[in-house]
Write a structure and sequence with these properties.
Blueprint (H helix, E strand, L loop, with lengths): L1 E9 L5 E9 L27 E5 L1 H6 L1 H4 L7 E4 H10 L1 H12 L5 E4 L17 H20 L4 E5 L3 H9 L3 E3 L1 H7 L40 H10 L2 E8 L6 E6 L4 E6 H5 L7 E6 L6 E2 L8 H9 L21 E2 L3 H5 L2 E2 L2 E8 L4 E8 L10 E7 L7 E5 L2 H4 L2 E9 L8 E10 L3 H11 L9 H4 L11 H5 L3 E3 L5 E4 L16 H9 L3 E2 L4 E2 L4 H7 L7 E11 L5 E17 L1 H9 L6 H23 L9 E5 L6 E6 L4 H24 L5 E4 L5 H13 L22 E4 L28 H13 L12 H8 L1 H5 L17 H26 L2 E11 L2 E6 L4 E6 L11 E4 L4 E4 L5 E3 L3 E9 L7 E6 L1
Parallel strand pairs: 3-4, 3-6, 4-5, 6-7, 13-34, 21-26, 22-26
Antiparallel strand pairs: 1-2, 8-9, 8-11, 9-10, 11-15, 12-14, 16-17, 16-19, 17-18, 19-20, 23-24, 25-26, 27-28, 29-30, 31-32, 31-37, 32-33, 34-35, 35-36, 37-38
Helix pairs in contact: 3-4, 13-25, 19-20, 20-22
Length: 918
């Protein structure tokens, strides 16, 4: 049966056009119930002994997804009209529901009500899309009641007052979420129920246990219509709110409209905005702008603490100068100029896009009565210091006080000091290493689940070996006669020979984006049979590779470059240590060692040439742990040693990436995936320039290796070549006009994309259609499009899974750092120690030090917390020195000091490494 659906739309040119689509209706769509006597039950997903089948409306799924994911909620019919609405309203919830529908252990069945002849409904004249969809849900529920008869109760779950009223009038069984959960006899499930706030929503009779004193704390958010108009007129400024990681009462909003960061001080001015929210900001009067002064943790922050949340812990900032509050006396010839240097300050007037998600932390009991029904109120304290405390109610407080739990945010009323949320699940005991490691993964959105059977089915059977078909492939060169060897990390395997576009394996890799390296484990982007048994380069084993081959002069000048898929047979698989030992042993003169020395000589010349062009050595200190094989606890900690062998491999990998970038850009100028590192601004480099001047260095900021410390905010990112002009392709840190990622397809999905682009440029394979769509490729590369805009209207977007390359890359880095921090805490909890440290940044109440022995950077206080020094300590900006007012004691940048390292817990369940001056 054919129906025509028509609607009008506005074109890019501003014209209105009518679109007519054919809509096919069928009568052979099955209900999914095993007990059905009419439908084919071979593909039934629901339980055969279910007494009740649930039908959920869209808003229930949107607001109660944490509850729905609980195994107690099962035998659910998911209507296609609900899926369509979810896809347009919230991509994250849509994907979570789809995962439930595809899970073999959950009883969720998708019913295509929009294509069933008896359940499809046309919109009536004057009926809103929302009302039409609610009616479609009720019609489908009624159909199920008639279709299955009295053997099974069909229950519509809705919190919409009007939808429930109409359902009851139409003879449909309907309940609210809370009443249904109560009927299950599992009181702990009620902790998962999100309490709706709208007057159009049905609420059970629950006493409001919030404090009766309803004082207005925050300003009302402006409506979107007013925000849009204000942005257009330049009254408001849009940007992402970034809360200071070490002082949660200070935030920044990067504004393109004024070309600067707007500073937001205090929770009142943040106006219920969370870190990562897209907000509209109004500038404060200029006489209220923040004055640039010496850096401190005191005074202004202390005022916020006393006024808003006195038990909040505030830290001296160990990273960027822009991450610390400023308040201290300043000396030197630039003092007056510093006092007059004001930066834009503002307040949040509206939330354009929320960044709420689930948070890990623990409970802090509130001094309130238990209330009715065993309900207790508590404040949830996130491990992420940027997140405000969250008010929840729970029926299992006694069991949760010593646990790490997950809580989701539901709302934040302007009358409440804290946002309201609900308990999601328990992770484990506080302080347990496995629990805290899982927290690291959850906080950074790292997917660590096992690979599914569908993904593993994409792999070739083991044992795998190079076949005669591979050797006879005209697009693959036989290089087995060439003396090939690898130095860890391995050379460029031909991963894309096994990871084909559009397969479950490719979808999974694109969602993971990158492998994640923790202290005690590695979370792979691709399954281990592929990375360890099929693609990894081993001695005397034939492998498929994607090769970049240069002809070079003895001076490391490239005469020619070619690219080919190949078959290789490695004569040796060396670690960095083994390769270095060979090069250093003068007794060895075998061909392999000679090759290593020759390559190292070329690499040194290549490296020097990059440095001469202005390249920077940006690698920060890497901490290495010795881990107990049984307990997995750290036994020792130190800095990872970089050898010439490491630098040799790095040079050739960089050269390969540059060569591939040039090749793919030449063939695909509008859709190549490249990587750039923008030039840092003068403001970013200012702290480094001050430090250099204090020790008598005339710093050339275009080429010094010392820039690493000042480039915290100049981040390398992926981009699509069609979105920027060639001068913007520059990778500043490498001093390379073009750069991409090609050499690590086993652990980075970006490299998989580049492999496909390179293969297409060589006419080995066709370019996948996704790469021919520039807007779509941009959405893949740019995390902000994916993460902060669920309504992505991108051609064929639903044909692939979004990759979030920059987002996944950054999260993997943050997870690695958090894992190092966790194991550092575990180690020093048992091994407090004294050691040497070097001062690297000056603050008005202390300084930041670097501990060479352990590769640790952290704050050392000269004043007690909450004490602004009272003028006792002053900062000399010119000489980068902090000293007592009477001049009796002073500390200078780059000075060595002796410190004590130990773990303390100033707040419950928030251990930190404390550095104390000896």
């Amino acid at each position: 049966m054919l129906q025509n659906k028509s609607y009008v739309r506005k074109t890019r040119a501003g014209k209105i056009e009518k679109v007519v689509k054919e809509h096919y209706l069928r009568d052979d769509i099955y209900c999914g119930a095993p007990a059905c006597t009419v439908c084919d039950t071979s593909a039934a997903r629901l339980s055969p002994n279910a007494s009740t089948i649930l039908v959920l409306d869209t808003n229930v799924v949107l607001n109660q997804i944490d509850l729905i994911e609980n195994p107690a909620i099962d035998n659910v019919v998911v209507l296609s009209v609900v899926l369509d609405e979810l896809r347009n309203k919230n991509l994250s919830v849509y994907n979570r529901l789809r995962a439930l529908c595809s899970s073999p252990v959950r009883k969720f069945f998708v019913f295509s009500n929009e294509h069933h002849r008896d359940t499809y409904v046309k919109a009536m004249v004057g009926e809103s899309p929302n009302d039409r969809n609610d009616r479609a849900i009720r019609v489908a529920t009624q159909w199920y009641q008639r279709h299955l008869g009295s053997a099974v109760r069909i229950l519509l779950i809705t919190n919409d007052r009007e939808n429930k009223r109409k359902a009851v009038e139409e003879g449909i069984f309907a309940e609210t979420v809370e009443s249904y959960v109560k009927s299950l006899g599992q009181p702990q499930l009620l902790d998962l129920v999100v309490q709706p706030a709208s007057e159009d929503v049905v609420m059970d009779d629950v006493e409001d246990l919030r404090p009766s004193k309803k004082k207005i704390i925050y300003s009302e958010h402006k409506p979107m219509s007013e925000i849009t108009a204000g942005l257009h007129r330049g009254i408001y400024h849009q940007g992402k709110l970034r809360v200071n990681r070490y002082n949660s009462f200070e935030a920044y909003v990067g504004s393109e409209s004024i070309g600067d960061e707007i500073i937001i001080y205090g929770r009142t001015n943040m106006n219920r905005a969370f870190d990562g929210d897209i907000v509209a900001v109004e500038l404060l009067p200029q006489d209220q702008w923040h004055v640039e002064k010496a850096l401190s943790i005191a005074a202004e922050v202390g005022n916020y603490l006393r006024a808003e949340d006195e038990d909040e812990d505030v830290h001296l900032v160990p990273n960027s100068s822009d991450d610390a509050p400023r308040n201290a006396s300043v000396q030197g010839p630039n003092a007056d100029a510093s006092l007059n240097s004001a930066r834009p300050s503002g307040r949040v007037v509206g939330i354009i896009k929320r960044n709420w998600h689930s948070y890990c932390g623990s409970l802090e009991p509130m001094p309130l009565p238990a209330g009715i029904g065993g309900i207790a109120h508590a404040l949830f304290v996130s491990k992420d210091r940027r997140i405000p405390k969250i008010r929840i109610q729970t029926r299992q407080l006694g069991n949760l006080l010593d646990k790490r739990i997950i809580v989701a945010v539901d709302s934040w009323d302007r009358l409440s000091r804290y946002p309201s949320g609900h308990y999601v699940r328990t992770i484990g005991e506080i302080g347990d290493r496995n629990t805290e490691s899982e927290v690291v993964l959850i906080e950074n959105d790292i997917n660590c689940r096992l690979f599914s059977a569908q993904v593993l089915a994409c792999l070739p059977p083991l044992p795998w070996s190079v076949s005669s078909e591979h050797l006879s492939d005209p697009n693959r060169e036989d290089l087995r006669h060439v003396r090939v060897f690898s130095v860890d990390p391995p050379d460029i395997a031909d991963v894309t020979n096994f990871v084909h576009p559009g397969t479950p394996l490719d979808d999974e890799a694109s969602q993971r984006g990158t492998s994640v390296y923790l202290v005690e484990r590695r979370i792979d982007m691709l399954p281990k049979p592929l990375t360890e048994d099929i693609c990894s380069l081993r001695s005397d084993v034939e492998r498929l590779a994607f090769s970049v081959i240069w002809e070079m002069t003895p001076e490391a000048d490239i005469i020619s470059t070619r690219f080919t898929k190949s078959v290789i047979k490695s004569c040796a698989a060396l670690s960095y240590v083994e390769a270095q030992a060979r090069m250093d042993d003068s007794r060895l003169v075998d061909p392999l060692t000679t090759d290593l020395r020759n390559m190292n000589a070329l690499a040194k010349k290549m490296r020097q040439r990059r440095i001469d062009r202005g390249a920077l050595t940006l690698a920060s200190a890497e901490v290495k742990f010795q881990i107990d094989t049984e307990t997995h606890d750290p036994l020792d900690i130190g800095m990872y040693q970089i050898r010439e062998a490491n630098q040799m491999v790095e040079e050739f990998m960089l050269a390969a990436n540059v060569s591939v970038a040039e090749k793919i850009l030449k063939h695909f100028p509008f859709c190549s995936l490249l990587r750039r590192h923008p030039t840092p601004t003068r403001e970013m480099l200012e702290p480094l320039l001050r430090t250099a001047a204090a020790v008598g260095l005339d710093l050339d900021i275009s080429s010094s290796k010392a820039l690493a410390d000042s480039l915290d905010r100049a981040v390398a990112v992926y981009f699509c070549s069609g979105d920027l002009s060639p001068p913007e392709y520059l990778h500043y840190g490498l001093a390379a006009p073009l750069y991409t990622h090609f050499t690590s397809p086993i652990r980075r999905y970006a490299d998989v994309i580049v492999h496909r682009l390179l293969a297409a440029s060589l006419e080995i394979s066709k370019l996948p259609t996704v790469f021919q769509d520039r807007p779509q490729l941009t959405s893949i590369a740019d995390s902000k499009d994916v993460l902060h805009n669920d309504l992505l209207h991108v051609t064929k977007f639903w044909d692939i899974m979004p990759v979030y390359l920059n987002y996944r890359h950054r999260n993997a880095q943050m997870a690695s750092r958090a894992s190092v921090e966790l194991h550092t805490i575990i180690y020093f909890r048992k091994h407090p120690t004294d050691t040497e440290a070097r001062i690297v940044k000056i603050r008005s109440n202390g300084f930041i030090v670097f501990v060479p022995k352990y590769g640790i950077e952290g704050p050392v206080y000269l004043t007690a917390k909450g004490d602004n020094g009272g003028g006792e300590w002053v900062v000399d900006e010119q000489h980068q020195q902090v000293k007592k007012a009477d001049g009796s004691v002073s500390y200078n940048v780059l000075q060595m000091v002796r410190i004590h390292l130990e773990v303390v817990e100033p707040q419950p369940n928030r251990p930190k490494l404390q550095l104390t001056l000896i």
